[in-house]
Structures are given as structure tokens and as C-alpha cells.
Amino acid sequence: MRPSRLLNVLTFALAAMSSPLAADEGMWMPQQVPALAERLAAAGFQGDPRTFADLTGFPMGAIVSLGGCSASFVSPDGLIVTNHHCVQGALQFNSRPDRNLMVDGFLARTRTEELPSGPGSRVFVTLAVEDVTAAVTGDIPAAVTGRAYHDLIERRQKELTAAREKQEGYRCTVASFFQGLKYFAITQLEIRDVRLVYAPAAGIGNFGGETDNWQWPRHTGDFSFLRAYVSPQGRPAAYSPDNVPFQPKHWLKVSARGASPGEVVFVAGYPGRTARFVTYDGVRETVDYQLPRTIRRNTEMIALLEKVGVGHPETALRVSTRIRSLNNGLTKTRGVHEAMVRGGVLRQKERQEAELVAWIAADPARQSKYGTVIPAISALNAERTRTRERNQLLADFAGATGSALGAAETLYRLAAERAKPDAERDPVFQERNWPRTRENLDRLQRNLDRRADHAVMTYNLAAIARLPADQRIEVIDRLVGLKPGQPDAEAAAAIDRWVGAQLEKSRLYDRDFRLGCFDRSRAELDAMEDPLLRVAAALYPVQEGIRNQAKETGGKLERLTPLYAEAVLARAGGLVAPDANGTLRVTFGTVKGVENRDGLFYLPQTTLKGVEQKATGKGEFNAPAAQLAAITALRTGRTSPYVDSRLKDVPVNFLSTVDTTGGNSGSATLNARNELVGLLFDGTYDTVASDYFYDTERTRSIHCDTRYLLWVMTEVDRADHLLREMTIVP
Amino acid sequence: MRPSRLLNVLTFALAAMSSPLAADEGMWMPQQVPALAERLAAAGFQGDPRTFADLTGFPMGAIVSLGGCSASFVSPDGLIVTNHHCVQGALQFNSRPDRNLMVDGFLARTRTEELPSGPGSRVFVTLAVEDVTAAVTGDIPAAVTGRAYHDLIERRQKELTAAREKQEGYRCTVASFFQGLKYFAITQLEIRDVRLVYAPAAGIGNFGGETDNWQWPRHTGDFSFLRAYVSPQGRPAAYSPDNVPFQPKHWLKVSARGASPGEVVFVAGYPGRTARFVTYDGVRETVDYQLPRTIRRNTEMIALLEKVGVGHPETALRVSTRIRSLNNGLTKTRGVHEAMVRGGVLRQKERQEAELVAWIAADPARQSKYGTVIPAISALNAERTRTRERNQLLADFAGATGSALGAAETLYRLAAERAKPDAERDPVFQERNWPRTRENLDRLQRNLDRRADHAVMTYNLAAIARLPADQRIEVIDRLVGLKPGQPDAEAAAAIDRWVGAQLEKSRLYDRDFRLGCFDRSRAELDAMEDPLLRVAAALYPVQEGIRNQAKETGGKLERLTPLYAEAVLARAGGLVAPDANGTLRVTFGTVKGVENRDGLFYLPQTTLKGVEQKATGKGEFNAPAAQLAAITALRTGRTSPYVDSRLKDVPVNFLSTVDTTGGNSGSATLNARNELVGLLFDGTYDTVASDYFYDTERTRSIHCDTRYLLWVMTEVDRADHLLREMTIVP
To answer: B320 lies in which domain range?
Structure first.
């Protein structure tokens, strides 16, 4: 895209700056960065902010998405660096009971040893971002609302997407910014052959495990390497031994000097979701309902999945990434809840909104334009509250992560959607997504486990069985043989019997059968007489009803929330970063410690000394023997260019004030000379609520210093060929 | 005593200083301080080191011992400030189920409201310290060793003590310094009427409880006030309503400015025990045997005592201080063990001794003088190892803290010792100690509980029942009906039956009966037919045998250890502080934070902000409502002279590098102008192993800032009359 056009688009971003926002807050669209010039200069940033607006130039052209994680090119041969925790799936996919890459790590000594990352692995290279607001929301009469409005803007987005995906290998997303106030079409190159190149052992890459997750001081070597492959013609293609390394136009140079306290750094990546433009009412529902629910369910689910793995190593392997992900979510959710309630974030949000309301009321024109927006949004939220738990339980049951029933639901819904013209299909089930859906169904094999499914389905049905009489899901009552008010033991027996019968006979655990269902119609699926497909068929009408209701409410909300965002922006003077939505962003900050609690200071850097202090030789702190030997060598005279002269040790992790969230994992951290100085991989526990409300004082992101990465590659894993492939700046 | 004489005595302390010891290490005898002048000046200390040598001058004359805790006079009317945790016994003694001073605190509004602290409460004012080394160890032929040597020097100490205690109210202790290389006679005034004046609520005085014990950041208002009373004639006397406040010659002024980072401070008090002059072999036994044993037993004992209190509030109250003390010990012991093993302290000690051995071997004269000392000490230690567990189990059983059997043992042994001439009695049972022993037997009432005794005796006997065949305690086997190799269940049944029978019939739970036994002979005690007194009588010969054996080994060790200490001193160049032994000491340091772990820095001060952060309204973090209200008032405009201008808040606790240990609790922390700026009350977890080996970098003591004390007294507890009584320096 052309920067000039974007700048034009973002005129609101250039309004006078009287807001108290620090340079640290904001996951900025690259196109907004030039407007930040003054602020960045004041913060000590020496680079040219204008370069960011060119997404295909340097450095933004080197920043890629893995779909859920961020990454960057670090060689002209498509070598990609990201977090260790972002390649868990690839490590799991390539693990066998006798070769556990998740524990031992992996290093391809040659290109031919590089392993396919598994189905569904992707590298997305952002090519263009266009403002399509007018095309999405322009010229719609005010009377059109609810489902009609929802369907209309959804159709327009589909059309915009389709037009941009005509060329093979391109992927387009029309994304909403500022709660639907703006829409941008983002076009990406979608590379489908992604290979695992190098991951250190878990004792480095996941050192500290769940114990250290979200914590500081941190000593995690959370880095790994992938490589993007394309057809010999240079186009995205499915895995083939004939494929060749992708040659990006830009790749990052790796700094051998890492980052130091006080230094200005920036992070470029694809943050997933934040909710800073959500109303107080919405945040309050999150605190009162969603977070406690997630805490409870994750806790129970982790216990459940850990139990099913005991004495069954294959099951344990299959549920391991799910447990890790649940644990991560649990820690985060607990932290958010704590920060919201005890930490006072909810009160701050309440105050913020009260100020907004007062600001609106202070001016008749504003009052007339925005005065009814917040109450109207609240009313819609309240409407959804009534059936939320029932609907959520049904969704949890039918779409359980990593389950065969979840696969059945997907297959059945796909069959139903396929019967429609493509433009009328639910966006998720449009033809453009079929390959990915198919890959997901393929990839599922590594997680699929009858024993785990039995436990999870039983757990979900037990909750459904306890629903009050006026909220029953009748089709489930009928299928399973449940009745409101039934004694728990009776319901449990019926559930156990029913679940056992469905799972025993279902062939969806068989990869070929499952993928063989992919192109089938509803009638064909029915004819297969698979118990889980029958369950999916039976649930389909109920779920469609819920979805249609959601579209009706959604359409009404889509009419209101842009006005809310407009009011927030107007009040703040315009230059505000939009909420994260999985698109490319840049955030600026400083390497800096923080007084975490009264009397306790998080120093900005950690070193190998901490690895020695924490290493226990087992569990989450099982630093590899080769690493401990390398540390001993360093302590007894061996020199390394990665020793920091001030710290007199190799730096491991550092803190900075950059504003990040989930999805940012693996993001490049760069210095003012655009050199890679670190990889973003986490935030401190105090940071978790920043998705809702950013606290300039306390928020800290956690990065792995490139000096640790280079030291491990040199001294522990001897990945010399990769070191030679990269450009290392002394 | 005359300083000139002492200086003379400590000539060894004046040798050239080439040792690398920092100013922070060392619990110095006040008489050593003038020799530290240069070092203290270099560290930034501005006071006159010579003043310390005058124990009856200012400031040392204001520093007192409570026997186990330290304290200091802060008014001309005998007002004493110490730690909150040092007045637990007084709070417990004055508590009733409906008036729990341990929770609610106490404030006497007038002198008449001041409460007796309970039997055994003491204030010791040090009057003189004399070198009596020649009188204790001089002129003994080299052939005299073992028990003969032990008895001889014990007798000489008794004679020295008796001579100095002729005057009523004086207490003398002849204490060993440098492992018996030096002996000093310390004469103290012993004040026996001690009253509770003021203790804040547990939510301030014990804020953080076990969770925060040994931790930082800390927010504990660990201060309380007592008052010393004497007869109208100004002499020490038992409690009487006619007694009047003691008028000390010196008392400390209280600084309203507390202590600030970088400031030189010193702590004057009565540190209990350190073991820095113990051989590596001795430390090793501590690590391999004593510490793990204490960890295991304390853990089990805490669980036991907590269980017996469930559903029995009176029992729970009676065992509460015991649990608190066990918990404190457990945390400390765990920390010591961890520091010793994982933290490498044991290795440092090993290296230190290897260097000493090499230094000895490097010179023929040294080798001839000290060459055999360390192996000889090791051989004696090894000898004791064989029966140590058996002897320890017997001691644990017969002398269990706070038990009726422990009282029986004391009474029986007292009767046996009383039959001898006073000069031949075991020092503990000499006439001079009878009043204290009697008070202990009286004070025991607040802890004595049949239910707790049953649990503890059963627990101890179960371990005795499992002793191997060649280590049996035959008298116990016979009494209880135990046999080696007996099935556990059978032994347990026999134990339970026997314990139940003894406890049920024993009248030792009755205060009057117990105190009535005090003056009885063995025959009279036998005639009382009390089951527990009979047990004590039966165990007496076995215990006497063990004690005699200990005297034999002790005498041999007393011949060796002074030589070891002499070698250490000679190698260090002379100016080294002796191990703590409960006598008056001074330690110098700086208010300073510490990098506790790689990446984590303990800031040197905490503030009210942390109280707010930690306050949960319950349990260990139950900050009183009045305090929270006072904080709110402060946050909303109320001013206070105790707000630190840099921190913009009232400081609560601070860290310093001073060298302290148990017994130092309650010690005055003074600034260079001799003003009270804080109260020492704890050390960080990293500090616990400093009793064995001092780590200059990591060791930190924890103090309560006088500004917090003054703020709480002013704003929370309105103790205006006490504030008026003290001299507060602005």
C-alpha cells in the first residue's frame, strides 16, 4: 500500500496531542507511526518514523505472522526466528514416545534435516493494508440494523476479501478497528510449507515452566527457528521436497550487543486482542462472569487432563500442549481478575468511563450524538446475559478443543454451509478457508484421544445436566437421557453410559475416515451412521438458532460501538492506537525495571547467574548438562563476545515498557538502528490486565536478549551453520 | 569496669589489620569498638568509638536484655522499647478467651493500667564486663582433661559468679568467648518487676505473620513497650503494687527522622548464638544431622499441635506461642539448610578451613602448636555421633517444652541437686537460679495442656519404640511395655494406654501442686506417688549417665577448641568479633538494599503503600480498620511529620548490612548521633546461614523504622502519653 494514502486515511490521528498518553502505550498501526515522530523523538527514539509506514520496506517487510504468534525473517533464505513456545505444535507433531522433541529440542544440521512443522503451519507476510471503511459501512440507511445490518456488512467484507484473494497464495482479511469505526483490508502472502529448523531443549526454551510463567526474574531461552519454503517458482505451495527456501525482500540483522537499560526499543508483531475500547459495562461482565468461569473451568480441566494421562504416556503426550495452554490461560486469567478487582483496574475503568460520560454531557452537540450510546450498549449486553451460561455450555460441549465431537461439529457445519453459494456462507466456512479447516482436522490427530474426550465430554455434560428447568438444552436431554432435577448420580451414570457408547463406535479418531468426511454433504454424513456425527447433526439446529440470535444482537452492537469509539477518540484528541486485532503493529518503549511491589524492584535484566541459581536438574528447572558445563567454562576463563561488560555475565532476559499482548509472542524487539536485540515472549503478572486498561507505571513486557540466543547457539547447541547464515552485527 | 583495663585485655584485637573483613561483619564486644575506629571512619561512621567501651555510659547504658530478646530504655521512667514478638508471652499471660491481647493488642492509658508481664519476665542491665580468663583456665596442668578439667573450670566459674552476686539484685554470668580462649564475667542488674505498657494489634505488630517471616518486602510494626519497676528503695524486687518505675541513668532519644538509604547505623543488643568459630566438621554435622532432624520434627510437631487445638479453643490458645516459635524455627532451619547445601555455604566453610589447615602447615611452629587440633576435635565429634539420636530422643521426651513431664524432670533433678552443697550443683540448679526455675514452673501454666502433652508424648515415644535393639532405652521399654522389633500398631497401643494413664492421674497440671513440689527432696517427691514424677525418677539415672559422659567429652573439647579459635584469630590478624553468646554486642552497617536473586532487587525501605497492597482484612494480613482509616486520611490530605520527603510516604521497615542473629530481636538501631532510628527484628531469608558463615554481599537485617512506630502511636493507637514521655528528636 502507499503510505501517502494511509496517512490521508488516518487524518484523525494527526489531531493536536493533549492526551497524557506515554510513548509506551499503544500498539500502533505502522501507518500511524509517522504521526508519532515528535513523541518518539522526545522518548529518545533515533530512527526515522516514516520508514514504518512502508509495510514492504525495511524493517516492516521482515515481520511476519505465524497465525497466533509473531516472527521475523533473519536471513535471505527465509530463516525465521520466533519463540520456543510458538513451535510447540511442530515439536509435538514431530515427537514420538522415543523421541520427545518437546523435551530434548531439535537442531537440523542440514536443510534436508529440517522437519515439516505439521499441517496448518503458516507464515503470513503482510503486503498491504487499505482503508475500506467506506466500502464496508458507507451508504447504509439508519433504519438498517440488527441481523440485516450484520449480514450486509459481512457480505461487503466478503466481497472485498474475494477481490483481493484472486491471486493464488494471497490471503486477505477485512478487519475492524476502533470497534467498527474503521475497516482495513489486509493482504498477506500465505506461505504453507513451514519447517522446523532449531529449538533448544525445554530446559532452556521453557526453563521455569509454569512456575516462572508471567513472573520476573525470568531466565527463559524462549526462541526457536523455522524456515519458510515455497515452490521452485517462488510461490506459496503445500509441502513438497522440491520446495525451496523463500527469499524475503527484507530480513533483520541480529545484534550481538542485545539491549541495555535505558535503551529505546520497539516491538513489531501481530498482537491478538485487547479490549481497551470496550465499555465499562462490558469489562464488568468479564470480571463478574467470564473470568471466574474461565478460572474455574481451566482449573478443573487441567486436573481432568492430568488425571487421564496418569499411566497412559500416549494420552499424556496428546494432552500435553492443551494442558500447557490451559495453564497459561489460567495464570493469565487469575492475574487479570486479581488486577481488576484487588488491583483496582475495574475502578479505574469505571472512573474513565464516568469522565467520558461527563465530557459527553458537557456539550449539547456531543450529548445529542453520543449521549445514548453507552446505555444502549448496556441494554444489549444485559439481553445476552440471560442465556449466556446455557449457550456457553453448549458451545463448550459441542466444540471442545481437540475433541472428536468438535471435529464432527466442524464437519457437519461445513456440509451445511457448503450447500449455500460461497458468498452466503459463514465467513469461517467459505471456500477460501477449506484448506485450513482440512489441515486443522488433520493436525487434530496429535491431540485426539478417546480417553481425554470421554473425560471432557462427561465433565461438560455434567454441567449441562444441572441447568435449571427453563434453560434446558432439550436435544441433549433427549439424546443422553437427562431430566431437570435428576439426582447427580443418576445423571452421571446416564452420561457415562451415553458418552462411552458414542466414543466407542465413532470412527472420527481415524485420520483417514475423518478427512474422508471433509467433502461430504449432510445427507452423506448422516448415511455414515457415525455416533458423533449424529450428535453434531442433532445439535445443529439449536446452535443455528443461537448463532442467528447472536447476529441480530451483533448487528445492533455494530451500529453502536463505532460511536462509542468515536467519542473516546474525540475526547483523547485523536492519536490513539486501536485495540489489537491480530494485525501488524508497532509499539515503542524503553528497557526498564519496575518497582513491582512496595520495597521490591524488578531489575531490568537477568543473567546466566540466575540460571545457575534456579537450576535444580529436574522438572521445570532442568537446565541441560551442556548448558551448565558451558556456564562453568565461562566462569573458569572461557571468553564470550556475549558477556555484558557492566553485568560481567551473559544477559538472558530483559524488561521493557513496550505495550504487548498475546499474539505478540515471538515478535522482534529492535533497537533504534533496526537491529534485532531480542524476542518478546511474555509480560509480567502485573501486565495481564493491560488488555483492558493500560497502566503506564507498572506494565512490563519480557524479552529474551539476543545475546542469550547467540550464546546458547554458540556454546550449548553449536548451531554454527545458522549463526553463519544470519547477519550478526557486532 | 574501666575501659583502660579492657583495652589492655584485648591487645590481640589491636594487631595489624590485613583481613578482608568488611565493617558490616562482626557482633563486636563494646570494648573492641575503639579498636575499630579507623575502619568505622572509613565506612562513614561519625560517632566516637571510644564511648562504646563504657558500658554504664551513653549509649550502652540504655541497652538492656530481656533474656532472649534485646531492648532499650527510652524514658527516664524506665520505659522500654522492644519487638512485638518479644512481648508475646506477656500478651498471652494477660489474655483470656474473651480478651485476646495477642490479637487486639494493649495500651495502658495510665501507669496503674500497666499489666505484670508474667512470672519470669526480666530486664537485665549490664553493669560490668571483666576478663577472668586467667582465673578460669590458668594454672591447670596439661594432664588434667576430660571430666576433671570440665569440673574444675566449672567450679572456678561458679566461684567467680558467687563473688559477684553477693549484692542483692545482681546477676553474674561467666561466659566463654572464642571457644573458651577467653572468659569474661558479666555483671548485670536483674529487674524482676516488668510490666506491659503498649503493644499494637497483631494486624500491625505481627502483620504478615508466618508468610512474611524472614521475607522482604516486609511491613511489620514489630514494636512494643514495657516498663521496668523496682522497689521504692530503687532495688530490684518481685512485683508489688508499691513498686515504682526504675530510673535508668541513660535512655535513648527517638529520632523522628528514622533511617535513610546509605546512612550508617549500628545495632546494640544481646545476640544469642552464632557458630562461626565451629570447625567444618561441626558445621557438617549440623547440616547432615541436626538441621534435617529439626526440620522433620518441627514440621511434625506443628501439625500435631495444630490438630490438638481444633475444636478446643483453650488448648489452641495454650499451644499458640509454641506453634509460632516452632514455625519461626522451621523457617529459619529450612533457610539455613538450603543456604548451606544449595547456597554453597558449607563449601565456603570447607574452603575456609582448608585454607586454615594450609596456613597452619606452612609454618613448623604453627604446625606443632595447632596441627593436631582439628583432627582431635573431629575424633571427639565422631565419638558422640554413635548415640546422638538415642540421647536426643530421650532428651526430647523427658524435657519436652511446655509439658508436665518436663516440669517433673526439672523438679526431680532439682531435688537431686539440692542434696549437694551449692558449689557442687549443676550450674543450672544452683540456688541463685531457684527463683527463676520456680517462675518457669509457674509461668508454664499458660502453656500446659493435657491434650497437647498426650499428643507430644505419644509422638516422642513412637520414635523411641523404633530404636534399634542395641540402642534401646531399657527403662522406657520396661515402663511403657515396648520391645525392639514390635509391630508399630502394637507399640502405638501400648504407648497410648500408658501415656493416658500417666497424664490422667498426674497432678502436675495444677499450679499449686506443681509449685508445692518445688522445695521437696527426692524421697518426698517419691512419696507423692505422682505418675509423672515417678517417670522422672525412673529416667534420672539414665540421664545422669548421659550427662556425665557429656562432661567427659566436653572437658576434652574445652581443652582443644581454644587452640582452634587461637589459630583462626592469629591467621585473621586478631581483630575479629567473637561468636555471639548472649552478651552485649554492637554491630555496624549501612541502610542498603540487596540484589536478592539475579534480576530481583530488595529496595532498602518499605512504606505504608505496601501495607495497603498486602492488607486483605483477614488472617496474617489483617491490618486494623483504624490503621486503614489513618492511611486513607494521609492519602486525602492529612499531614504527618513522619512522611519521608523522598518516598512521599511513611516508611515502615528498612534493610541494613548489620550483623545480627536471634536474641538481637528488639535491639535498638541507632544513627551516628546515637539516636534511636529503628528496631532490629529480623533478617532476610538469605541471612539465616550467617550464624555459620557471614556473606558480606547478601546478609541483610530487617528493622522497623521509628517513623512507623511514631506514626502508628500518633495516628492509629493515640498513645499520646507515651509519645510525651519519650524524647523525640525532630
So the answer is: 278-360
